[in-house]
Amino acid sequence: MSNPAILAYAYNLTLFVTGIFALLRGSGPERVGAAVNIVGSNATTLLMAAGIQKWGAGYAATWMVDLSVIAIFYWLAVTSIRFWPIWCFGFALCDILLHPASVLMPREIAFYYESAQVIWAYMSLGVLAVATARLSPGERGKSLRGWRASRAGADQVDHEWRGC
Questions:
Q1: Among candidate residues 19, 21, 60, 24, the one with its CA nearest the CA of residue 42
Q2: What does the pLDDT read at residue 139?
Q3: Under 8 Å between Cβ of 29 and 3
Q4: Which residues, at least 6 apart from 159, have a Cβ–Cβ distance to it below 8 Å?
Q5: Contact call for residues 73 and 39 (beta carbons, < 8 A)
Q6: Chain segment 1-50, per-residue pLDDT in tens
C-alpha cells in the first residue's frame, strides 16, 4: 500500500470516528459541525474521484464546496453560543484563501495547497472532537430544537468553555 493511500485511510478513519463521536455525544451545533465536515470531505473526494482535473474545471466545483463549508461555519459561529465554530471558520477561511493562489501559481502552490487542505481539515476535526468531549452532561444529546430554545433564554453563558 502506498503512502498516499495510508494517509487517505488515516484521514477517513479520523473523519469517521470524529463524526460519529460528535453526532452521538454532541448537541445541535456539534451535530451540524460533524455533518458539515463529513459532507464537505466526501463531496470533495467524489469530485476528485470523478476525474475532474484539480486545477481545471474541478477548481470551481471544489471551491463551491469550500465556500459552502465556510458559510455554514460562519452561520454556526454567529448563531450558537459555542466558541469552536469560530476556529473552524478560521481554518476554512485559510483554505479558501489558497484557492486564488493555486490558480495564479499552480506548480508552486500545488504542494502547499494540498498540504494545507489536510492540515486545516485535521485541525477542524480536532477542534470539533475537543468541543464535543468538553460538553457538560446537561448539554449532551440536545436536539437542534433544544439548542435553539436554550438560546432564547436569558442565560447565554457557554458553560462548557467556562474557565478557559
A1: 19
A2: 65
A3: no
A4: 136, 138, 139
A5: no
A6: 677 788 889 999 999 999 999 999 988 899 999 999 999 999 988 887 77
**What does the block give as the cell for 14?**
479520523
Rounded to the nearest angstrom, the gap between the alpha carbon of residue 94 and the centroid of all alpha carbons in its chain is 12
Q: How far apart are CA 157 and CA 162, in angstroms?
A: 8
Residue for cell digits 468541543?
131
Cβ count within 10 A of residue 104? 8
Comparing CA positions, the residue from 43, 68, 47, 45 lying closest to residue 57 is 47
Give CA–CA dist 51/53, Å, rounded. Answer: 6
SS3 labels along 84-135 = HHHHHHHHHHHHHHHHHHHHHCHHHHHHHHHHHHHHHHHHHHHHHHHHHHCC
pLDDT tens for 116-144 read 778 888 999 999 999 999 987 766 655 44
